[in-house]
Amino acid sequence: MAGKDARALDPASLAHGCALPSEAFPDWEETFGRKAPLELEIGPGRGHFALDHAARNPSLDLVCIESRRADCELVRQRMKERGLSNLAVLQGDAKLLVPRLFPQGSLSGLHVQFPDPWWKKRHRKRRMVDAELAERMRTLLRAGGFVDFRTDVPAYARAALEIWEGTGFENAAGTGKLWTEPPEVLSTRERRYLKTGQPVFRARFLNPGPPAGELLPAGAGRDWTDVRRK
Fold first, then answer.
1. Using CB atoms within 10 A of its CB, is residue 57 exposed (0-12), middle (13-18) or buried (19+)?
2. How many CB atoms lie within 10 A of CB 125?
């Protein structure tokens, strides 16, 4: 977390690196010391995109959720070395944490880049991008908030288009189309692919606003006891 006032959200002081259910919805303005657009990245890995994105956009605050503790510690160290105060890194299960960290309409953007494709059919339920995540982001993203999705797996790209569009997001490139404009900030993998020529499939979606009808419960998500220790 940024600064000395990380308190309950300091991953080193929490079981599994997760906020307890009773500690839902932290005051992000207090955490970052200001009111600013708030973005989320799920699965930053070693954090090259997160660090560059936060540095290039000092007017926004970025929260990252990563399951690997070693990667979290590495990103935090690099964040300190670069003097970034608009970046926070939490270790834990994103599907468990997200419903407890962000109130409805509080996020301006979501970044999900190169998530594990879980190749085997019986494992696809473990994919990060699914209808549950997309439906939840309809409520957590403000109207006009964006989703930045990137993958190097064509089948995952097609599945993501169906999921995000099927839950009511507007495809910024047009229905069924991938985003073709180059991103402002490249990940390490994308920089490598520029040299090797391997294609990257990108999509960008906009939230028209919260869905009509019943919303997902604020505290719902993966069962609290179903947390893998890392």
1. middle
2. 8
- Kind of pairing between the strands at 38-42 and 61-66: parallel
Lowest pLDDT segment from 2-11, 97-106, 147-156, 185-194: 2-11
pTM of the model: 0.83
Q: Which one from 61, 116, 130, 226 is the annotated catalytic residue?
A: 116
Give the integer Cα–Cα distance in Å for 87 and 126.
Answer: 27
CATH number attached to the domain at 7-206: 3.40.50.150
Give dist(CA 127, CA 116) in Å, integer.
7
For residue 143, the SS3 value is strand
Residue 160 has pLDDT above 80, yes or no: yes
User: So what's the pLDDT on residue 49?
Assistant: 97
The CA–CA distances, whole Å, from 69 to 66, 131, 182 equal 7, 27, 31
Q: Is 10 a catalytic residue?
A: no
- All structural domains of the chain with their residue ranges: 7-206
